[in-house]
Specification:
Belongs to the metallo-dependent hydrolases superfamily. HutI family. By secondary structure, this protein is an alpha/beta fold. Helices cover 35% and strands 23% of the residues. Strands 1, 2, 3, 4, 5, 14, 15, 16 and 17 form a nine-stranded mixed β-sheet that branches. The chain has an eight-stranded parallel β-sheet with strand order 6-7-8-9-10-11-12-13. It is globular. It binds N-(iminomethyl)-L-glutamic acid and zinc ion (ZN). Zinc ion binds next to loops.
Length: 435
């Protein structure tokens, strides 16, 4: 090695899961911890990491372009948010009183509100407005320490409006340092023009939407809201298999409210992940374990909907040895927050996950829920140099001291893009970025 682009020193504590694969069951508790550490970066990737003295000795004859000292802070892999509805128009604070008075989530949707209210706003918005709004949220996520985000469509529900959302996500990916991985979710709700004709809308998704999304290569994944009164297991199966045929990997909003069999379907169609899962049965969880489906849990959603019920994270980890991932589910209805650190606290409080499990769920397991475990999700030689620097003494401090942002800095692809809690990125990671 002749050169290092960036040497990160002064790391009080480096904490990371290890490897590329999802960490299942008890493996979720196993982390690598190094005190007084350093990380060497070349061409955006990690080339060395370990105890600082060892790294410095090894680099004695090597030219180092830049060194930063993180002042004894804690460094983890960049956080990954694998389930968001990032791009949408409008907001839904007008439904707050209704929600608080006890009107159920699906009832608000049945009355033409909920997701359909956001569909109206998204259809009415131009690409530029959607871009500016999503950019604001993406910056918020970045300031929280997130370096990769999944973004779903599903508020357009016409060919053009779905493509519009996905094009905005693509533009964000092209211009913003945070990586965006897109999911087509035309099957998010049945739009008013198809009311009472769900089968015809499924035909429309399969025959009109999916081919366009695949042709324009606008998404990696295809997702369906498989729920009582929304899309049945049969309809979801049809859409996910059609998506798979077009090269889109299945994901599924499964068993959120009713135990419909979405978890079983996830196993059957070879979904990469199944999300929500509050009502998933043992049979469903067993099917997921058998077929390697990652459960993506969204404790912010049950919290915000005021539900007493939570996803059975302990059973998933202890009995079914599943690799649990966590996510914000950022969306304007059931979970309007960009804060992955709030989700960490809720995972501790309501899902009874340990700090070690929470970090694993927000890094390597979340990376695998996006099929990116080879590149991100752990501090490993050869992986992208995506790092989050926390003003926190240890990982337990993150879910413990809640309601505040502990992120001091973020390094993405080997570039410092957040420092001292502010975005300092100009054009380091991606050309022509607009921030
Ligand atoms: N459950 C379905 N979809 C979203 C919520 C979308 C919305 O309410 O706008 C979710 O993951 O929670
Ligand atoms: Zn969702």
């Amino acid at each position: 090695m002749e050169r290092i682009d960036l040497l990160v020193t002064g790391i009080g504590r480096l904490v990371t899961p290890q490897g590329n694969a999802p960490r299942c069951g008890q493996q979720m508790k196993e982390l690598c911890e190094i005190t007084d550490a350093a990380i060497a970066i070349l061409a955006g990737r990690i080339v060395l990491f370990g105890p600082a003295q060892e790294i410095l000795d090894g680099l004695a004859a090597v030219e180092i372009s830049e060194t930063i000292d993180v002042g004894g802070r804690m460094v983890t892999p960049g956080l990954v948010d694998p389930h968001t509805h990032l791009v949408h128009g409008g907001s839904r604070e007008h439904e707050l009183a209704l929600k608080r008075s006890g009107v159920p989530y699906l009832e608000i949707l049945a009355q033409g509100g909920g997701i359909l209210s956001t569909v109206r706003c998204t259809r009415a918005a131009c690409e530029q407005d959607l871009y500016v709004k999503a950019l604001r949220s993406l910056n918020e996520m970045l300031l929280n320490g997130v370096t990769t985000v999944e973004a779903k469509s599903g508020y357009g529900l016409t060919v053009e409006d779905e493509l519009k959302q996905l094009r905005v996500a693509k533009r964000l990916n092209d211009t913003h340092p945070v990586d965006i991985v897109s999911t087509f979710m035309g099957a998010h709700a049945v739009p008013p023009e198809f009311k009472g004709h769900t089968e015809a809308f499924v035909d429309h998704i399969v025959n009109e939407m999916l081919p366009k999304v695949a042709e324009e290569k606008l998404a990696v994944f295809c997702d369906v809201f498989c729920e009582q009164g929304i899309f049945s297991v049969e309809q979801s199966r049809r859409i996910l298999l059609a998506g798979k045929h077009g090269g889109l990997i299945p994901k599924i909003h499964a068993d959120e409210i009713e135990p419909l069999g979405g978890a079983e379907l996830a196993g059957e169609v070879g979904a990469i992940s199944a999300e929500h899962l509050l009502a998933a049965t043992d049979k469903g969880l067993a099917a997921m374990a058998k077929h390697g489906v990652i459960p993506v849990l969204l404790p912010g959603t049950s919290f915000n909907l005021g539900l007493a019920k939570h996803a059975r994270a302990r059973d998933m980890i202890d009995r079914f040895e599943l690799p649990v991932a966590l996510s914000t589910d950022y969306n304007p209805g059931s979970c309007p927050t960009e804060s992955i650190q709030l989700i960490m606290m809720l995972a501790s409080l309501n899902l009874k996950m340990t700090p070690e499990e929470i970090l694993t769920a927000c890094t390597i397991n979340a990376a695998n829920a996006l099929g990116r475990g080879e590149d991100i999700g752990s501090i490993e030689v050869g992986k992208l140099a995506d790092l989050t620097i926390f003003d926190a003494p240890n990982i337990a401090y993150l879910p413990y001291h809640f309601g505040t942002n502990h992120t001091f800095g973020v390094i993405k692809n080997g570039h410092v893009i957040v420092w001292n809690r502010a975005i300092v990125y100009t054009e380091a990671s991606k050309e022509g970025a607009e921030l």
